[in-house]
Design a protein that fits this description.
Layout lengths: L5 H12 L15 E4 L4 E3 L3 E3 L10 E4 L6 E7 L4 E8 L10 E7 L2 E7 L11 E9 L3 E7 L8 E3 L1 E5 L1 H10 L5 H6 L36 H12 L10 H13 L5 H9 L5 H10 L2 H16 L13 H13 L3 H10 L2 E2 L7 H5 L4 H13 L18 H8 L5 E4 L9 E4 L30 H12 L7 H14 L4 E2 L9 E2 L2 H13 L4 H9 L2 H4 L18 E2 L2 H12 L24 H9 L14 H9 L1 H6 L9 H8 L3 H12 L6 H14 L2 H13 L6 E2 L1
Helix pairs in contact: 4-16, 5-6, 5-7, 7-17, 8-9, 10-14, 12-13, 15-16, 15-17, 19-20, 24-26, 25-26
């Protein structure tokens, strides 16, 4: 970013001639004006990589041509005049042959197409694009996928050279030779010295702030009363049967249907407070944290792109979340830890959110507000928002909170991703000339020059504050939607002007209860589960019917389907052997277990509205044909399945049928279903085969994979 001197040239030549790993070559070691990808303003989904040698700094970024993405460089001009424009990229056979580079020259925009399958011609690792005239404070160069229909595009660095500098660089900087880098012998491990790293700056310990306004916690009766006041006169549906209620409650709280023993005990209990007692029992189960940890992991993972050659493993995050939910930690503390964590993901799973987004400032700005505030700002990244009053600067002020955050990605091991801080760096609007203060909607600011941790901690403290207008509403809207079938605002990750909102007064009361409880998740669930609104029967809502007058049916999430299959048929979780790396597959994906396959078939983005989540052919084929499922629908004595045990120990066909319904659908069959089953058994003439048919049909019913 400065004029060259002799030291610059010597360092550049030394690095190139000795063929050092090119990650040791930094922008300040080169002549001319150089910007690394870390200084670019990014639009769209980019991923970080260090896979292919021949890059500047600590890696490069890439994107497949699935959607338009762009990286904009604003290089400061030492003076008006003509400059050679060069870009660096790592060549490979999977690269784009038509990567677009748009140069904002003084006499108008110029476009150059670059074949990134070919090694840059030099000097060094750079590909010259031509000489262009620039005037003003900066030369703007934009690299994008526009017009690219295949191949990955790579962005590493952009460089400006005067004619004299360019001539010298061509003479003194040899063209990069990948073969020589690959052939260079490695230093024996015992003689390698590990570089000393400065200790990471730790985030301040979380301190909960008290609400400045008086907030009263709700009871279930008070919540029903508020609902009635704002809904007006409504016909009060009958409450769900005990069997329907305990299935619904067990699925919502611990992510599976009840076992036959749990079902029978609850239905047989005639005590008046048994529903409240059931809620308490499930809230103290370890499965409560596991279920909701999986839910929040899905919230994050469904919008997180996979990086190059690294398969993201969310299990450590799920375990971490489960432990905190089961300990009763407040959602404010959990959120604070997720936003401020540093270190290796495998050692500190709280770093997953930042690390799996590769510390990308634009992506983190958009996802932080969407996940934790249910406020979507991504449409303002490259221009003023088209539908609400949100200028482009709003997005980029948020992105400035993460401009000094960085993540290093290993190959094929997401547990090894390390989140840390850069010592410097500021953020600008693309093409802008002013460093932006980190600023959250004008409500929380820190200064230019503040450290990464100061920025992230300040943002996290503001987000989880009791005074934040969105934080408690975002969480309660999601939980209400999951338990009642729809949220107060739909989609659940948009509670602002663009959301479809109903009963805002009730939403505010539920959110206030959550704040009053110190963001206690269990307290929120405890109140909702005891309301009449939650306990009502499900029926098909009539057009125009008021919300929450009746329960709304919905699909089970993938992990809920898997856990219910375990309960129903004792489905084993089989994981094939891992494929060993070979010349054909250097980085084989991890093997998929039975649980993975169920999640792949039945999983869906939990931020999607329920009316957009349907059944698929993949789901039907899995339940019909999956080998593990088929093996468990085997009534032969040698199979030792739960079905085989039931058929062998119970001679009464009607009692067998009852047990099958209780295991799979958590209810008894009705008279019509009993008659159909009886006729089928008689028609088949083989008791064992008939019972297999009945079990198979129940597993393949829409009822099994739905909450009701």
């Amino acid at each position: 970013m400065r004029l060259p001197n002799h030291r610059d040239l010597k360092l550049a030549l030394l690095s190139l001639f000795l063929l050092l790993p090119l990650s040791t070559l930094a922008a300040e070691d080169l002549t001319g004006v150089v910007q690394d990808d870390t200084s670019a303003d990014l639009y769209g989904e980019w991923s970080k990589s260090t896979h292919t040698a021949g890059y500047l700094g600590e890696g490069y970024i890439y994107s497949p041509p699935v959607a338009e993405v762009k990286a904009t460089f604003s290089l400061p001009l030492p003076a008006d005049g003509k400059y050679q424009v060069l870009i660096s990229y790592t060549a490979n056979a999977n690269r784009s042959e038509t990567t677009l580079v748009r140069i904002r020259a003084a006499d108008g925009d110029a476009e150059v197409r670059v074949n990134q399958q070919k090694t840059p011609e030099g000097p060094g690792i750079f590909q010259p694009l031509g000489e262009f005239e620039f005037k003003g404070d900066a030369a703007v160069v934009e690299i994008s996928t526009a017009g690219t229909d295949k191949g990955v595009i790579i962005v590493d660095a952009v460089r400006l050279l005067t004619a004299e500098q360019f001539a010298t660089a061509k003479l003194k900087e040899p063209k990069f030779d990948p073969a020589k880098i690959a052939a260079k012998p490695k230093t024996p491990a015992k003689t390698q010295a590990k570089p000393k790293e400065s200790p990471a700056e730790a985030a301040p310990a979380f301190v909960r702030k008290e609400a400045t306004r008086k907030l009263a916690p709700l009871t279930a009766a008070a919540l029903d009363k508020i609902l009635a006041e704002h809904l007006g006169t409504v016909p009060d549906s009958d409450l769900a049967t005990d069997a329907a209620y305990i299935r619904r409650l067990t699925l919502d709280l611990i992510g599976r249907q009840p076992t036959p023993d749990e079902l029978s005990k609850f239905v047989a209990d005639d005590s008046p407070g048994k529903r409240v007692a059931a809620v308490e029992t499930l809230l103290t189960s370890p499965e409560f944290g596991r279920n909701w940890g999986a839910y929040w992991s899905d919230v994050i993972s469904y919008r997180t792109p996979q990086p190059e050659l690294t398969f993201l493993n969310y299990e450590p995050l799920q375990v971490w979340l489960a432990e905190r939910f089961n300990k009763g930690e407040g959602w404010d503390q959990i959120t604070y830890d997720l936003l401020t964590a540093s270190g290796k993901v495998g050692d500190n799973p709280a770093a997953t959110f930042v690390g799996f987004h590769q510390a990308d400032k634009s992506r983190l700005a958009a996802e932080t507000t969407r996940v934790f505030l249910s406020t979507q700002i991504q449409c303002a990244e490259c221009h003023d928002h088209k539908f609400i009053e949100m200028p482009q600067e709003t997005f980029h002020h948020l992105a400035a909170f993460f401009v000094r955050t960085q993540a290093k990605l290993p190959w094929n091991d997401s547990n090894g991703i390390v989140v840390s801080s850069k010592p410097a760096g500021e953020h600008r609007v693309p093409g802008g000339k002013t460093d932006l203060d980190p600023d959250a909607f004008g409500m929380k600011k820190v200064g230019v020059g503040d450290s990464d941790i100061v920025r992230r901690a300040a943002l996290a403290e503001w987000i989880v504050s009791p005074e934040n207008p969105w934080f408690a509403k975002a969480f309660t809207n999601r939980v209400w939607a999951r338990m009642l079938g729809r949220g107060f605002s739909e989609p659940v990750d948009e509670i602002g002007e663009l959301g479809d909102q109903v009963l805002p007064e009730v939403h505010a009361a539920v959110a206030d209860h959550f704040v009053a409880s110190k963001f206690d998740f269990r307290s929120l669930v405890r109140v909702i589960a005891a309301t009449r609104a939650y306990q009502r029967q499900i029926h098909d809502a009539a057009a125009g019917e008021k919300p929450f007058v009746t329960m709304t049916a919905g699909r089970l999430r993938g992990d809920e389907v898997y856990q219910s299959l375990v309960t129903a048929i004792e489905l084993p979780n089989v994981t094939p052997e891992a494929v060993k790396p070979s010349d054909a597959i250097r980085f084989p994906p991890p093997p998929k277990s039975t649980r993975d396959l169920v999640n792949e078939a039945f999983g869906f983005d939990p931020s999607a509205s329920q009316d957009t989540v349907g059944r698929s052919m993949q789901q039907a084929m899995f339940l019909m044909n999956n080998r593990q499922v088929q093996n468990q629908v085997d009534a032969s004595p040698a199979s030792e399945t739960v079905l085989a045990r039931i058929v062998a120990t119970e001679s009464d066909d009607q009692k067998v049928l009852t047990q099958l319904y209780e295991r799979v659908l958590a209810r008894e069959p009705n008279d019509k279903e009993r008659e159909i089953a009886k006729r089928h058994i008689e028609r088949v003439g083989n008791r064992q085969a008939a019972m297999e048919d009945l079990m198979w049909s129940l597993l393949n019913s829409a009822e099994f994979t739905s909450r009701r």
